[in-house]
Design a protein that fits this description.
There is one protein chain. By secondary structure, the chain is mainly β. It has one domain (8-72, 132-252): Beta Barrel (Porin), CATH 2.40.160. 0% of the residues lie in helices and 73% in strands. The protein starts with 14 loop residues before the first strand and ends with a strand.
Length: 253
């Protein structure tokens, strides 16, 4: 129970609070399927807390930015020139004067064209590219806070919905009317990230009273993926998880 007779700067204010924070996270994957088996992301968040004396409810919006090393297969099919021959297109017969026989004789006149011979070849190469992804995250958390002077200890847990906003990931196919180029394209052969998924989050940390209405908070975080992080069935029985550190400011109205 909070002692409301304390000086205001030592009180965890009940009411509505606005949080703005930055959070780096390190994701860990199954090292038997992924190389590298970890990746780092960053997120910027804005949340609202509805606080009682000790318990609170928090919800908001976060923008997550991450990179992932993907492997692409580049395929190019071409018709390569291997030779040429002369083709007879038509024959005309004309009469010409033969000085030896002293009469007209019929001779054929050939009209020809040059024909090229092509052989089709398939060329495949693999390239690596660091693709960027941007996700919208919607957290819903319930927590507990305990004031100790200007410090407050807090713990919270809840669920987060992730939805893909943007990706630089490529899957290109294009063709050319030139007979020498039949097909060219690029196909992702790495595991493709899911467009939407859920995670479970547990945070435990502390906040420090800077003024009557403002606090600085630092919160270590653990995240566990509840649904497949990659498209289709999860290629591993071991779900990815992440550790992070959330740092921000809280203003209580």
């Amino acid at each position: 129970m909070i002692n409301w007779n304390q000086s205001p700067e030592f009180i965890t204010n009940a009411g509505i609070s606005l949080n703005i924070y930055w959070q780096p996270e390190m994701y860990y994957y199954d090292k038997n399927l992924f190389s590298p088996s970890k990746s780092q992301n960053h997120s910027l968040g804005l949340s609202v807390m509805f606080s009682g004396q000790e318990f609170f409810l928090e919800t908001g919006v976060e923008i997550e930015y991450l990179t992932k090393n993907n492997i692409y297969r580049d395929t190019k099919i071409t018709n390569d020139l291997i030779g040429q021959y002369e083709q007879v297109d038509s024959v005309h017969f004309v009469e010409v004067w033969d000085p030896v026989s002293q009469c007209y004789i019929t001779q054929p006149q050939y009209f020809t064209s040059l024909v090229s011979i092509y052989e089709q070849h398939v060329n495949e190469t693999e390239t690596e590219k660091n693709d960027t992804y941007m996700y919208l995250r919607l957290p819903v958390m319930i927590g507990f806070q305990k004031p100790i002077g200007k410090l407050s200890l807090e713990a919270k847990t809840g669920f987060v919905f992730h939805s893909l906003l943007y990706t630089s990931q490529l899957n290109k196919e294009y063709s050319n009317e030139d007979i020498q180029l039949v097909y060219a394209g690029q196909t992702l052969i790495s595991f493709e990230r899911s467009r939407q998924y859920w995670s479970f989050v547990f945070d435990i940390g502390a906040s420090y009273q800077l003024s009557k209405n403002t606090k600085l908070f630092v919160t270590p975080s653990y995240r566990y993926m509840l649904s497949p992080l990659f498209s289709g069935n999860e290629p591993s029985r071991k779900s990815p998880y992440a550790f992070g550190m959330k740092t921000g400011l809280r203003y209580t109205f």
